[in-house]
Specification:
This protein has 293 residues and is mostly helical. It has 14 helices and four strands.
């Protein structure tokens, strides 16, 4: 909807008609900001966006209405925070151009891409090379848990269970992007925006990073579903005693089993099962998969 309004304002300007689209920053009182949690507000402050009093916002509105620009961003920014983010290559990229000292880029040296670490920071690849092979996985897991705790507002990474899903811990689309940007700067890779969905736990993500940065030291992936089930069985046995979230684990295991039965039934029914399904049947299946019915 916001993109449409921006495009509409641009279109009207090309036709000689008045229009102004404002991408508002955070107001100090009222509006959507009142529904933000302390974690959300802390994330905005870390990105260089700070609340502005309504009086200041209204003055910006008056200024915007007298401007010839089609799209404007009325917001209060912490330039010191933006300078630090730009220097480290993190934070909202559209804001990097507002301050000097933006991040330098270099060609990929590992994985899908790489970024230059901040000045004075020892690249993670070098730290891994100087770390005994058996301790590299732990080094990366500590790094991942540190950044998970940082974006979620926890005081210590010790509160982050490496085997618990990041989405279950409280990640959403915004924290996922901030987390990816932090890791990009920390590990020197250009990681995908789908990172927390592709590797949904801190432990899984640490193993993925180990495979990218030190492939020879990374544990081999399961050869197939049966081996993966055996590993899951061993993991559950280790955590069975006194697991605080045993009910949730049981529910999710039942869901996985039901999904597996559905997949095998679809294959047995033939590949044309989806082609022959009605729209109502497809939406009903989606509702069941997403837990909406």
């Amino acid at each position: 909807a916001n993109t449409f309004l921006d495009a509409l304002a641009h279109h009207r300007h090309t036709q000689g008609h008045p229009a102004t689209s404002l991408a508002w920053g955070l107001w100090d009182e009222g509006g959507m900001g009142d529904r933000l949690s302390e974690t959300d507000l802390a994330r905005l402050r870390r990105s260089g966006i700070v609340p502005m009093p309504p009086e200041e916002a209204l003055r910006m509105l008056d200024t915007a209405l007298g401007s010839d620009e089609a799209v404007l961003y009325p917001a209060r920014l912490d330039l010191n925070v933006l300078r630090g983010l730009a220097a480290s290559g993190t934070g909202p990229e559209p804001l990097h151009g507002l301050v000097p000292g933006g991040p330098a880029r270099r060609p990929a040296t590992a994985g899908a891409g790489a970024t230059r670490p901040a000045a004075g920071v020892v690249p993670l690849a070098e730290r891994l090379a100087a770390t005994p092979e058996e301790a590299r996985a732990g080094l990366l897991l500590d790094l991942v848990r540190e950044h998970v705790a940082g974006v979620l507002g926890h005081s210590s990474p010790d509160r982050i269970d490496p085997d618990r899903g990041l989405l279950d811990l409280g990640f959403d689309s915004l924290t996922a992007v901030e987390f990816r940007n932090r890791l990009n700067a920390a590990v020197g890779l250009r990681l995908p925006t789908t990172l927390v969905f592709d590797h949904p736990t801190s432990g899984a993500l640490a193993r993925h990073l180990l495979g990218e940065l030190a492939p020879a030291a990374a544990p081999a992936d399961p050869a197939g579903p049966l081996e993966a089930i055996e590993q899951l069985d061993a993991l559950l046995r280790r955590h069975a005693a006194g697991a605080p979230d045993s009910a949730e684990i049981t529910q999710r295991l039942h869901h996985v089993l039901q999904s597996w039965h559905g997949l095998t039934a679809s294959v047995a029914a033939g590949e044309d099962g989806l082609d022959s399904a009605t729209d109502d049947e497809l939406f009903d299946a989606l509702d069941k998969e997403l837990g909406l019915s």
